[in-house]
């Protein structure tokens, strides 16, 4: 149960004054659902604006306040184009005030023709005209209200304005309770950090590195604590030593020799499973490194020892694919392999549940439905988690540990993670690395192509398909709005379909699962030649005959993600090509990042260098790349503060594993605050 003291923070945003159903949607888009989310919606930056008498005084790129009189409303010809208000200053200079999205109504209301308004925003140039895009303020009175020093600038979504958000933040900050201190007093003093409530308030007032660091530290501490609680819990639980006699493994008729890295990893896993303490191991290996067969070997060890094994996949598509692969590979061993997903219903589902309960199923593959309460196992000895989301790992470990005895756990990831961040993401798991690819892999010929050469790209795809080979076409998720992205992908699909006809299929997140699977199936079977997809194909999908990949707006993706996407090709013996199509405006860093993709195929190197290139300024991953691990701490803060947070968490758990001291109680509050409460739940379970 969440401590009462946090209740005001977890109240819905609707409890704030002025928030009705209309604001819920734009707030929801930003993930602002509760009062605490608003309080933690920290400014992207602060601006100080300069009042200017006329436009000539302002410099390009400068934040200004200027009095302007609208002369004309100009809608754009295309429905999606911007709406412009032309306006004049006192000296007769013209400036466009530009609104994107469906904002013409707002624009007309705020800026009626012929009436003078004070406009605050950034002065830019558009062609040979001056312009202010989405002004932060438009007021009819004086400049006085607009000239606030250090005004916070918040991330917005359609339907929100800066003053609106600032007003909600004010309200949320007023409701902050006083919380007991969870940071070790010495640490607090050394760093000169404010207490939690002050830190939040200060972070909204001005650029305050100490306050921001404290908030980041809180998040890192919460995460470390939760991971350590999982670890401690699994240590406390009794597992079971599983020693296989090898009788099933010798019957595996593999068409290849295992790599040294595979053999080493299997030996490490075998060693762990032979211990009574439950294994907590992470298998890290690039796409195509051959993790599946390592997982299979581990699962057969469990079966040889008379127990069951479960493989948990992040998506239905992947679960199916794993099931097919494992069933085929395991066939000669006689082990019974089955598939359980949310879609199994009625008789079929009952049969599966029965088989798990009476032990006739040895290996079960599925999605999270494997761990629903209604699913009971005769003797689950090993859980393999084929994982893409980092924090999910620890969370699911907690899930898997529901029983009296903990199963051994093997988590697998294809996301290459820089060494300095492994700790943050996986806590203290033991790690096996598949750092050697199976022999005979061809290098993927990677090229960067400018967007305006799209015709050439399509022509290249045409030649490729004509030669009888398959291809992927990836459309990015780039905007805040998922349906806009889907619309863009649909439009691309329609265009490609016009050109290539029935040979094109599409998968994306908003299609019904049956449709998605059917389309995937058509592609996997070779019936369809071109698969247009949003990033849902990112993980695992294995179609060796596909040898060309086109990635649109490649600069928008995280490098780890590009790397994973590219790993979908180059799986067969044919030479493979990856075309990274880049947008018109590419930053220097963007250029370097794409160049790195061209240069190397070593995922671990890509991860390390990407970290260098992006530097500390950028958030750890971005939402669209699905990499975001922390919501408050940025990359620089993770690197600076994580070691201390982790050490601090460890000392606390060593001294007070039950979190019962005064500081322990405070730490519980912290865990709930950051919604790592699954960590707390383990305390009671133990
Ligand atoms: P991952 O899950 O790590 O991305 P997979 O387990 O799907 O990789 O393996 C990719 C492909 O490589 C599969 O077709 C698999 O059969 C093959 N493979 C795995 N290990 C070897 C090996 N040692 N030698 C040759 N091929 C291998
Ligand atoms: Mg895999």
From TrEMBL:
Single GO biological process annotation from the record: DNA repair
Domain Helicase C-terminal: 467-612
SMART domains: DEXDc (SM00487), HELICc (SM00490)
Sample GO molecular function, one term: ATP binding
UniProt xrefs under Gene3D superfamilies: P-loop containing nucleotide triphosphate hydrolases
Keyword list, A-Z: ATP-binding, DNA damage, DNA repair, DNA-binding, Helicase, Hydrolase, Nucleotide-binding
Domain Helicase ATP-binding residue range list: 272-434
Name under which the protein is recorded: Probable DNA 3'-5' helicase RecG
Biological source species: Erythrobacter litoralis
């Amino acid at each position: 149960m969440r401590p009462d003291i946090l209740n005001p923070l977890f109240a819905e945003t609707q409890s704030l004054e002025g928030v009705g159903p209309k604001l819920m949607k734009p707030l929801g888009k930003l993930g602002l659902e509760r009062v605490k989310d608003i309080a933690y919606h920290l400014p992207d930056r602060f601006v100080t604006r300069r009042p200017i008498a006329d436009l000539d005084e302002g410099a390009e790129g400068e934040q200004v306040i200027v009095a302007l009189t609208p002369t004309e409303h100009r809608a754009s010809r295309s429905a999606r184009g911007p709406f412009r208000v032309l306006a004049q200053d006192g000296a007769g200079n013209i400036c466009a005030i530009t609104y994107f999205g469906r904002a013409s109504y707002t624009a007309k209301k705020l800026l009626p023709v012929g009436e003078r308004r004070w406009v605050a925003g950034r002065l830019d140039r558009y062609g040979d005209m001056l312009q202010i895009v989405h002004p932060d303020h438009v007021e009819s009175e004086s400049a006085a209200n607009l000239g606030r020093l250090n005004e916070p600038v918040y991330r917005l979504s359609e339907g929100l304005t800066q003053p609106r958000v600032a007003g909600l933040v004010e309200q949320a900050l007023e409701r902050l309770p006083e919380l007991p201190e969870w940071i070790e007093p010495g640490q607090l003093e050394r760093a000169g950090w404010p207490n939690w409530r002050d830190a939040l308030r200060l972070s909204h007032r001005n650029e305050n590195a100490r306050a921001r660091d404290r908030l980041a530290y809180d998040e890192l501490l919460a995460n470390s604590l939760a991971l350590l609680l999982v670890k401690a819990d699994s240590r406390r639980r009794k597992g079971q030593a599983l020693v296989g006699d090898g009788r099933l493994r010798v019957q595996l008729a593999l068409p290849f020799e295992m790599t040294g890295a595979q053999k080493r990893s299997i030996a490490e896993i075998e060693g762990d499973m032979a211990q009574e303490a439950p294994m907590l191991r992470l298998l890290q290996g690039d796409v195509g490194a051959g993790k599946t067969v390592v997982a299979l070997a581990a699962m057969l060890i469990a079966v040889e020892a008379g127990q069951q094994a479960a493989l948990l996949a992040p998506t239905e598509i992947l679960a199916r694919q794993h099931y097919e692969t494992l069933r085929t590979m395991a066939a000669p061993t006689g082990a019974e392999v089955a598939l359980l997903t949310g879609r199994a219903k009625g008789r079929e589902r009952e049969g599966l549940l029965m088989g798990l309960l009476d032990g006739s199923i040895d290996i079960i593959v599925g999605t999270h439905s494997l761990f629903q309460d209604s699913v009971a196992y005769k003797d689950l000895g090993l859980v393999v988690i084929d994982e893409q989301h980092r924090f999910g790992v620890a969370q699911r470990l907690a899930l898997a540990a529901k029983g009296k005895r903990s199963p051994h756990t093997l988590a697998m990831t294809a996301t290459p993670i820089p060494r300095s961040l492994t700790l943050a993401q996986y806590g203290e798991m033991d790690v096996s690395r598949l750092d050697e690819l199976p022999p005979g892999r061809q290098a993927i010929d990677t090229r960067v192509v400018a967007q305006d050469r799209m015709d050439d790209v399509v022509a290249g795809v045409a030649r490729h398909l004509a030669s009888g080979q398959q291809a992927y076409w990836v459309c990015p998720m780039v905007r805040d709005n998922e349906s806009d992205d889907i619309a863009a992908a649909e439009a691309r699909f329609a265009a490609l379909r016009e050109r290539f006809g029935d040979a094109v299929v599409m998968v994306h997140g908003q299609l019904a699962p049956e449709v998605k699977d059917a389309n995937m199936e058509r592609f996997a079977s070779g019936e369809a030649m071109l698969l247009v997809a949003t990033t849902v194909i990112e993980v695992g999908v294995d179609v060796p005959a596909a040898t060309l990949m086109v990635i649109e707006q490649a600069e928008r993706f995280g490098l780890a993600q590009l790397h994973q996407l590219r790993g979908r090709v180059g799986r067969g013996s044919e030479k493979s090509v990856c075309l990274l199509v880049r947008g018109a405006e590419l930053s220097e860093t963007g250029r370097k990042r794409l160049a790195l993709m061209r240069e190397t195929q070593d995922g671990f190197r890509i991860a390390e260098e990407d970290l260098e290139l992006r530097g500390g300024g950028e958030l750890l991953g971005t939402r669209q790349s699905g990499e975001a691990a922390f919501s408050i701490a940025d990359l620089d803060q993770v690197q600076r503060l994580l070691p201390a947070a982790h050490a601090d968490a460890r000392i606390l758990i060593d001294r007070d594993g039950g979190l019962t001291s005064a500081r322990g109680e405070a730490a519980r509050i912290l865990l709930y605050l950051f919604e790592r409460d699954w960590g707390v739940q383990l305390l009671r379970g133990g």
